[in-house]
Design a protein that fits this description.
- This protein has six helices and 23 strands.
- A seven-stranded antiparallel sheet has the order 14-13-17-3-12-16-15, with no helix packed on it. Strands 1, 18, 19, 20, 21 and 22 form a six-stranded antiparallel sheet that branches. It has a four-stranded antiparallel sheet with strand order 4-11-9-6, with no helix packed on it.
- It folds into four domains: about 1-65, no CATH class; about 75-95 and about 330-395, conserved putative lor/sdh protein from methanococcus maripaludis s2 fold (Beta Barrel), CATH 2.40.420; about 100-110 and about 240-325, Elongation Factor Tu (Ef-tu), domain 3, CATH 2.40.30; about 115-240, RNA polymerase II/Efflux pump adaptor protein, barrel-sandwich hybrid domain (OB fold (Dihydrolipoamide Acetyltransferase, E2P), Beta Barrel).
- The radius of gyration is 46 Å and the shape is elongated.
- By secondary structure, it is α+β, with helices and mostly antiparallel strands.
- The N and C termini lie far apart (about 100 Å).
């Protein structure tokens, strides 16, 4: 009996005692126990966040390290630089002209242009290889002109018929005039009619040929193949190559710059080479003080120069108008400047094997050299030739062991 009572009491106590598994939220003791476990879980999570933050910190460090490469040294050994054609120049302050970049066109000089005209009336047939841009020699046949097959179109044939009739009349009246049968007045009228008919007849009843009077380039064909032309009508224009004119179209807003213009450099549309007018005996012809009729909003500026055989008349060009000079300006060749993501850089040589990439701010540009406003100083040795190979060496990021130019 006593054992039964003890067992009953034990079962009662078991059912009356709350379990942490059944009431985890209501029992304070149980909650404290679970909270400890949960806190441990959160602690582990916080540790995870801490690790993640550490990861971001590493990424920022890597990004900063990449940015710092801009000021790091670039290794290109002296023998490699010589092999790749890398050249340098010591930059010093010098005179540099104010420059305005505009558009323009290369034209033949007025004195070297000639017009090819029709020598007879008829249908034009251009020579097989005649096109605009074709070079021709003096005396070259540009086109033939024929009136064959045109009803009433061969004026020369009619002139020949009139000449034959006038000659027959003159031959008939001449002996009669000698015998006094025909008056002198009638004789003179017949003689005049013959001379007029003779002048109207060219001697080439089938047409004629139109030839170039000067050597040059055909810049314009004024009629189409198969078109009817009259005697003396212009057929083509030939422009000589020896003397050319450069027209630069200066925007009106640069009107105050106009009086300072003295020369120009230009780059034709078909080449990447800059041409300096001073190297071709170029000179300023005129600078119009008024807007041209065909260039609204622009002030035309004209230069003359001698063609070196490489400039094509009629082509368009970028023109660098050169104005007043300024002293004490640092400038480098255009080829020395590298552009990367909208920023400009030059490469300065530190010693025979090491270079440094320096960001610079640019000023004026005359097509040949560009002004450096800031980023380098007088006396710096700048890469001016073969800059591409220094850029390739930059990607290696190798610095010789024990070698540093840190200051």
């Amino acid at each position: 009996m006593k054992n039964f009572i003890r067992a009953l009491c034990a079962i009662t106590i078991l059912f009356l005692t709350p379990s942490c598994a059944n009431t985890p939220k209501d029992d304070g003791l149980t909650c404290n126990h679970d909270h400890g476990s949960h806190a441990g879980h959160n602690h582990s999570h916080e540790g995870h966040n801490h690790s993640h933050e550490g990861h971001n910190h590493d990424a920022e460090t890597t990004e900063n390290e990449e940015d710092s490469h801009e000021g790091e040294e670039i290794t290109l050994h002296a023998h490699q630089a010589e092999e790749f054609g890398v050249g340098v120049d010591t930059i010093t302050a010098a005179d540099f002209a104010q420059v305005v970049k505009v558009s323009g066109q290369i034209e033949s000089a007025t004195t070297s242009r000639s017009v090819v005209s029709a020598t007879a009336s008829g249908i034009v047939r251009f020579a097989g290889n005649i096109t605009e841009g074709k070079k021709v020699a003096a005396g070259a046949v540009i086109a033939s002109i024929s009136a064959n097959g045109i009803s009433g179109g061969d004026a020369n044939a009619a002139a020949r018929a009139a000449l034959d009739a006038a000659k027959r009349e003159l031959d008939r009246i001449t002996p009669l005039h000698k015998d006094g049968i025909v008056s002198t007045k009638d004789y003179n009228a017949a003689l005049q009619a013959y001379e007029a008919a003779k002048a109207a007849y060219s001697g080439t009843p089938s047409g004629g040929s139109a030839t170039a009077s000067t050597a040059g380039v055909i810049t314009s064909l004024l009629v189409r193949q198969g078109e009817y032309v009259s005697v003396g009508q212009p057929i083509a224009i030939v422009s000589g190559n020896s003397s050319l004119t450069l027209r630069a179209d200066l925007p009106e807003k640069y009107y105050n710059f106009l009086p300072t213009v003295s020369s120009a450099n230009f780059r034709a549309a078909y080449t990447a080479d800059i041409v300096c007018l001073k190297d071709l005996n170029g000179k300023l012809l005129s600078s119009a003080g008024a807007v041209g009729d065909n260039q609204r909003g622009y002030l035309p500026v004209y230069f003359s120069f001698e063609n070196n055989g490489k400039v094509v008349p009629g082509s368009f060009a970028e023109v660098y108008l050169i104005g007043a000079k300024r002293s004490g300006v640092l400038a480098v060749p255009v080829a020395a400047v590298s552009e990367q993501q909208g920023q400009h850089f030059v490469y300065v040589r530190l010693d025979a094997d090491c270079y440094k990439k320096c960001p610079v701010i640019l000023g004026g540009n005359d097509g040949d050299r560009v002004e450096i406003v800031s980023g380098i100083k007088s006396g710096d040795v700048v890469v001016t030739r073969g800059m591409t190979f220094v850029k390739l060496a930059e990607t290696s990021g190798v610095v010789p062991e024990g070698h540093s130019h840190s200051h």
